[in-house]
Amino acid sequence: MIQLKNLERSYKTPAGQFFVLRRVNLDIQSGEFITIMGPSGAGKSSLLNVLALLDDAWEGEYWFRDQAVHKMKRKERADLAKKNVGVVFQSYHLLDDLTVRENIDLPLSYKDIPHKQRQSMVADTLDRFQIVAKKDLFPSQLSGGQQQLVGVARAVIHKPVLLLADEPTGNLHSSQAKEIMELFRELNRQGTTIVQVTHSEANAAYGSRVIQLRDGWVVSDTANPELRPYEAVKQ
Amino acid sequence: MKELLDEETSPDRFEMVLFGAFAALALLLSAVGVYGVMSFAVAQRTHEIGVRMALGSRQGDVIWLIVGSGFRMALSGLGIGMAGALVLGRVMRATLYGVQAFDLYSLVTVAVLLLAVALVACWVPARHCAAVDPAVALRDE
Fold it and tell me: What residue numbers bound the domain in which A200 lies?
């Protein structure tokens, strides 16, 4: 589904160019449930932002379902993301002045979907995530777990083939975290490819593959045991 | 005769020039104030813009959303300002010469100017925010 070839991401700092991703080569197959792990500053969120097409300033090759993302203009990338990608954020990123129903409807409002169909899709999603009773509440009136549930609902309402989650349970109680992870497992079973960033071994256990990053380098990948050791790669 | 007339009306003319200068200054300050408030209000929405962009909004959608809400806010302000101007105009009627208390030309000119300032004040930062990578805008909380 996704191939990254020699992908690099760097920032210009007064001290020079600072790389957050170095020569990343990655194959992601459809239906996988991948966990990206590593210490803070390893480049996990940067990699997720690149995969989510939220970040344009990288170099290298990015193929998404045989489409050369690296050759696309920003607008084309945004359209590709809109159709195929859903993102769940650690801090939920719900809009405070919109109700639960309006927040969930937001991704649909940017697509050419008739209003009635949108309403029906939102109603189905509210029902599926068992948050019908919360539909008219604002995010500030919900617990962290409920907000994240809305965040996941919003991310999957348009049925993306790829769901990306950046520390989705980072702000949650362990019982709420378990609920969210069970939900991810179910979505994965239904065919959604999932890539999550987490520090939690327990959350990683829900996935089928673990990729370790350090200083922007991919240092291990359970799907690729022959990956050259970190020190050798770094040369 | 002319000298006598000039001497006689000099204090009134001075008052009017001073009055006009303060009015122009007030208009300039209003324009600067409107620009400052509007651009601050848009900057406060950077995170929202990031969320919307991350969820599929196009740059144009975001810019129109921001400019639209700014325009509505500016219209409300103008409505209040116009009402105030009409009331004050009546109060100052005695001091006016060669102009009506309700001077349509002046009111429309000021309204158009302030609306234009408000629109530019929304459009410039909205365009800037919409051009930023969503990943960067999302970090702005």
Answer: 2-234
Option in A94, A95, A110 nearest B56 (CB): A110
Does the CB of A111 have a partner CB in chain B at under 8 Å? yes
Q: Quick: pLDDT tens for A91-102.
A: 899 999 999 999
Interface size, chain A vs chain B, as Cβ–Cβ contacts under 8 Å = 45
CATH of the domain at A193: 3.40.50.300
Q: Compute the nearest-CA separation of B44 from chain A (Å).
A: 13
Cβ contact (<8 Å) for A78 and B138? no
* Residue B91 Cα, gap to closest chain A Cα (Å): 42
Look up the ipTM and state it.
Answer: 0.83
**Which string of DSSP letters, residue by residue, matches A124-185?**
HHHHHTT-GGGTTS-GGGS-HHHHHHHHHHHHHTT--SEEEEESTTTTS-HHHHHHHHHHHH
From first to last of the 235 residues of chain A, give the pLDDT tens digit. 999 999 999 998 898 889 999 999 999 999 999 999 999 989 999 999 999 999 888 999 999 999 999 999 988 998 999 999 999 988 899 999 999 999 999 999 998 889 999 999 999 999 988 899 999 999 999 998 899 889 999 998 988 999 999 988 888 888 888 888 998 999 999 999 999 999 999 999 999 999 999 999 999 999 988 776 565 555 5
Q: Under an 8 Å CB criterion, which residues of B touch A?
A: 47-48, 50-58, 61, 133-135, 138, 141
Long-range contacts of A144-148 (CB under 8 A, 24+ apart): A144/A92, A144/A171, A144/A172, A144/A173, A144/A176, A145/A172, A145/A173, A145/A175, A145/A176, A145/A179, A145/A180, A147/A92, A147/A94, A148/A88, A148/A92, A148/A172, A148/A176, A148/A180
Q: How far apart are CA A214 and CA A43, in angstroms?
A: 7
Cβ–Cβ gap A55/B135 under 8 Å: yes
Q: Is residue A11 within 8 angstroms of chain B, CB to CB? A: no
Residues of A in contact with B56 (CB under 8 A): 78, 81-82, 107, 110-111
